[in-house]
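The records we work with from here on pair a chain with its fold. These numbers are not coordinates but entries in a learned vocabulary of local backbone shapes. To see the layout at work, look at the sequence and tokens printed below:
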Amino acid sequence: MNDFRLPAQTHIGYAHLNTANLARSLSFYADKMGFQQIGHDGDTVTLSADGHTPHILLTEQPTWKPKPRSTGLYHVAIRLPNRESLARVFKRLVSFSYPFGGFSDHLVSEALYLNDPDGNGLELYCDRPRDEWQYVDGQVQMSLGALDVDKLLREADDTPWTAIDPATDIGHVHLHIADLQQAKAFYADLLGFELSVDWTGQGVIFVAAGGYHHHIGLNIWGGQQPQPPETLGLRSFSINVPDADTLNQLCERLHAAAVKVEKQVDDSLLVHDPVGNAVMLVNKK
């Protein structure tokens, strides 16, 4: 099984979150951040940066509680296409006095950290050009350096705000899991991502396709307690693969590993990782 690798075009599609108050979440994601509402089905709203691609889905669960320290979502990473667009959305949120939790220069990217109104973790980031990334022994070099946020704010232009940059997408998803080796066996050995950064000593690893710094982060910082039922947080996220053959191979590999696979009406596959995070495997470029 270890010779299988996902195609380089593989990427994260959408993140589906539970919210206790849909109107409050739309005030944040649509009104403040500038995502467009492109669908509304019952208690679920679909949001998009470009007006047609699903990026964030929100399902209202009014009685559910915020996620405690447990497995589940650490953060959803919203990727802006360049530093200028990151600066603009940063300036926009600062204008509302929206609280941020941290700022980092990761060498490969520059990132802002915050929570949405339900406490779901978010990262807003932009990548540096790939030709500036450094590698040692096949692993991309990342760090947790300080980010000059004042300089970033000054780089936001003064044109009137309209919406988030339409080239924005979901760059990666970072999860709390119970065991790093178990998570590596599922996401790398079985699904076919490559181990891009191994910080096992710090309790975190990163996996990616196509030489990216990471499409999925996996850490044990939330402890081994399973996420309780009826908890806000991640409902599911999608991994988009570029062709039907890859999706079929994944289905065969999952069946061979005795992992339960549920086929969806759009021919996508729903599986759960070792701690129960729901993963949609989708044939979509």
Notes: Residues 11-283 form a domain with the 2,3-Dihydroxybiphenyl 1,2-Dioxygenase; domain 1 fold (CATH 3.10.180.10).
